Amino acid sequence: MSSDFRFHIASLAAVFLALGLGILVGTFFVGAPVVERQIRSLNRNLSTSVSELRRQTQEAEKNEEALSGLLPQLVARKLSGRKVLVVQTGDYADAAEQTEQALTLAGASVTRITLPREAWLDRLAAGTESTAAAAAAAEQIAPLLVTAGSGGDTGALDALRRDGLLTGKTPDAPFRLAVLVGGAEALSGPKDARDPLERARTLDAALAKAWQAAGVAVVGVEPLGADVSYMRAYQAQGIATVDNIDRAAGRIALPFALLGEKAAYGMKGTAERVLPASLEDSPGAEAP
Questions:
Q1: Which of 42, 50, 176, 236 has an alpha carbon 20 to 30 Å from 100's alpha carbon atom?
Q2: Going edge to edge, which strands form the sheet with 109-114?
Q3: What is the Cα Rg of the chain in Å?
Q4: What span, in angstroms and rounded, lies between the C-alpha atoms of 173 and 113?
Q5: CA-wise closest residue to 182 among 196, 164, 161, 167
Q6: pLDDT over 90 for what percent of the chain?
Q7: 218 and 196 Cβ atoms separated by less than 8 Å
């Protein structure tokens, strides 16, 4: 049973349990036959809802299986010989791994680093670095990452690594394609000090802006189940987005987005479409 299905079942059960408790309380005011009828109705409704959810889940799983089978063929050689920097800026390491796998499948040479969100938030919350200064730091980091592989000054990057603000190997060659892997887990604590979106509004936005100014194509991605979505913050920078990189459709869309098919891909309310338009327009998409 998939985690999505279990979540929906739990939600339904909670709703019907609440209704059932309401009926139980109502027994103090109405007769037992009325309560029995309501309980039978609840059972029928719950059974119907579970069956419908099971059908929808099975259909979604079949669609995912079909797209996963098509993924290698659809993205093959799309990024052959291209160097791509993947920067995890959110909390989902699995999403960064899935991003790297999708790019490798498309033939890209991938360098992956992490700018730990918690470390940057701690610095902001501690007051040792203002939001404006954090954005300025990102604007300095961005071009350094671009030139790191061509003998550029890496001293600032080394300093970030020592402070725990950057992990992973820096690029060994210039790149012109970059992916920001965002999305945050919900945090506890004062909102003004621990705002999960602060990272996307400052550092991520500054990275996207600086890279675009340097001629780097940037795409922002996150997993479908991210507690806090970065999509609107990324889209405000005018970059393509993929809100379901943990799904086959998202991994199909990513190479196309990097190559210039700018759109908001995915399944959330911020998405415009699921798959690239060129797949629909390609020869063979039409029936003979």
A1: 236
A2: 109-114, 83-88, 177-181, 217-221, 240-242, 264-265
A3: 23
A4: 14
A5: 196
A6: 44
A7: no
